[in-house]
Amino acid sequence: MPILGISDTQVLVKVHAVAICGSDVAGCLGKTGRRIPPIIMGHEASGEIVALGKNVKGWECGQRVTFDSTEYCGECSFCRRGEINLCSNRRVLGVSCDEYHRNGAMAEYVAVESRTLYAIPDTVTYKEAALTEPLSIGFHAVAISPIKLGDKVLINGCGTIGLMALQSAAANGASRVIACDIDDFRLDIAKKMGATDVVNTSRDDLVRYVAAHTGGEGVDLAFDAVGLDATVNASILCLKKGGCLVCIGNTQPDVKFPLQYCVTRQIRIQGSCASSGEYDRCLAMIASRRVDLSPFLQTELPLFEGESAFNRLINREPSLMKVILTIDQ
């Protein structure tokens, strides 16, 4: 007998923890066109399998799992070569746009495709596992970059994704990591997470600072986790000749950048979309404590206080990095 709410290839997950993403906050404010109401948001989550579709193999009820926020078909040309984040039929949990409507995990239960599941290691909590998704975004950005041992790296924007990229870059052998933001609290966290230099761009000239501290050459790699004209341009101007900018943030759908500068200095610009099967490696990093999630675990509220949580994030409460909503286990 079919289980109400899930297809033959899905599992039903009882949600135990779901984090609020910045994109959820923007969606709540109606800024993106990707949270058209009515919609249950939430794509950074973890929980326990409570029901299986009839064609699901390799999973059991009671298993602790997290899941990729990207649903992919597994059959298109991109999926066949492992680029599931570029799937021609890609859908994202908790997103409602002109193309599709897919309810997310800010609920007691969520139905997800079994191919997107990942088992949570015994040493990892539900709350930590819910942060696998944002970690995978930063991890993926670094993984597709041309980073090399000893590279000098700039992280522009020290929100959740920027800080995840910072830790991933440090883990990949960056010798110098310059982190910048307009918030001293976030810069303090960046320093604790391995940044060798921190720059508050509301007070200091980033381009001048980078030039002065790299012998005038610039950094090998820049990761822009904001996506504004100002941050993209500053990141480009901080690069050495032949350097690479990886764009993760997309606050603005369009930005202006110095094309001639990029051409004459042979600057590479690389977009980074979501993640592509890196959850296992990210969960291993969490389990082995090679990544510091503590700044994102400070604020926990029950799901029924979600409205309050969103208001605190919308109002930019000082020192609030992340809110994780939980459901009684």
What does this structure look like?
The chain has 329 residues and is of the alpha/beta class. The chain contains eleven helices and 17 strands. The chain has helices at 22-28, 77-80, 126-130, 132-143, 160-171, 184-192, 206-212, 229-237, 259-264, 279-287, 306-314, and strands at residues 10-19, 44-52, 64-67, 70-71, 91-92, 95-96, 101-102, 109-113, 117-119, 152-156, 176-181, 197-200, 219-224, 239-247, 268-271, 300-302, 324-326. α6 links the parallel β11 and β12. It starts with 9 loop residues before the first strand and ends with a strand.
Quick one: how many beta strands? 17
Continuous helix count: 11
Low-confidence stretches: none
- Principal-axes geometry comes out as globular
Rounded Rg? 20 Å
Proportion of residues in extended strands: 15-25%
Task: Give the % helix.
Answer: 25-40%
What characterizes the major β-sheet?
7 strands, mixed
The N- and C-terminal alpha carbons lie at a distance of 27 Å
Structural class by sheet pairing and helices: alpha/beta
H-E order: EHEEEHEEEEEHHEHEHEHEHEHEHEHE
Mean pLDDT: 96
Name a few traits of the molecule.
single chain; 329 residues; alpha/beta; seven-stranded mixed beta sheet; six-stranded parallel beta sheet; globular
Write the layout of secondary structure elements.
Layout: E1 10-19, H1 22-28, E2 44-52, E3 64-67, E4 70-71, H2 77-80, E5 91-92, E6 95-96, E7 101-102, E8 109-113, E9 117-119, H3 126-130, H4 132-143, E10 152-156, H5 160-171, E11 176-181, H6 184-192, E12 197-200, H7 206-212, E13 219-224, H8 229-237, E14 239-247, H9 259-264, E15 268-271, H10 279-287, E16 300-302, H11 306-314, E17 324-326
Parallel strand pairs: 10-11, 10-13, 11-12, 13-14, 14-15, 16-17
Antiparallel strand pairs: 1-2, 1-8, 1-17, 2-3, 3-9, 4-5, 6-7
Helix pairs in contact: 4-5, 4-10
